[in-house]
Amino acid sequence: MTEARGFRAFPVRSRRRHHTWWGTEWIQAMEDTAVDSGLTKRGRRIAADGRIGPITVSPGRVAAVLDGACQTAVTVEALSGNAWAALVAEASVQSGHLAALLDGYLPHALSGLVPGIGDLDAQCSCDDWGNPCQHAAALCYQTAWLLDGDPSLLLLLRGRSMEELTAAIAEHRANPPVCLTDPDDPTPTTLAAEAFARPVPPLPEPPPPATEELRLLSIEPPPGIDAGALYGAAATAVTRARLLLAAG
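Below the sequence we write its predicted structure tokens.
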């Protein structure tokens, strides 16, 4: 089971102005859904003022106590089975992806780890009506600082670990899937390489030219549209289509 990790409180004046792309995306996911931008601005100041206690990162949750009283948490859903399989497949394409993550960099190919708009849920014991409140916003900013230094924390937040990812990549490379199938659809799926290798079948014979008299369906025109003009435009379109078919 993936274990929680604890981090010391950031000291006063720990403001960070430059973020990694994944730290920036984390903050964007919070700010773009904020009800009150004033609360997020106050949260940014709180993050820099050293009012947040030690931070605990656990599967699906990052939590801290602010000002010694407000219990604040930000939650994010764990990766689904399909999302995890897609992440493992992407990470298996190049060995450099895993090496980069171990070295403290998150490749864009693994962007599925980063929460998007609407993926973060704030909880706090304060009386603020905003979502997130200033305390949860502050926690989000400091969490981004942690993610800047260690993007593997995104794996922990998503309910996984580096050990699981490493093992899954090794398994994927040792036993690559023959084809991808929908578990709800028993019909086998053809690999793309196999499909492209097949010869192109001949086109079917063109339909015989129309010889009967032109007849259009009677359709009630919308309000404000001249019925005669609509019929004439349809007749012109059908006639041109017939000429194009006849000409091959």
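Residues 5-174 form one domain.
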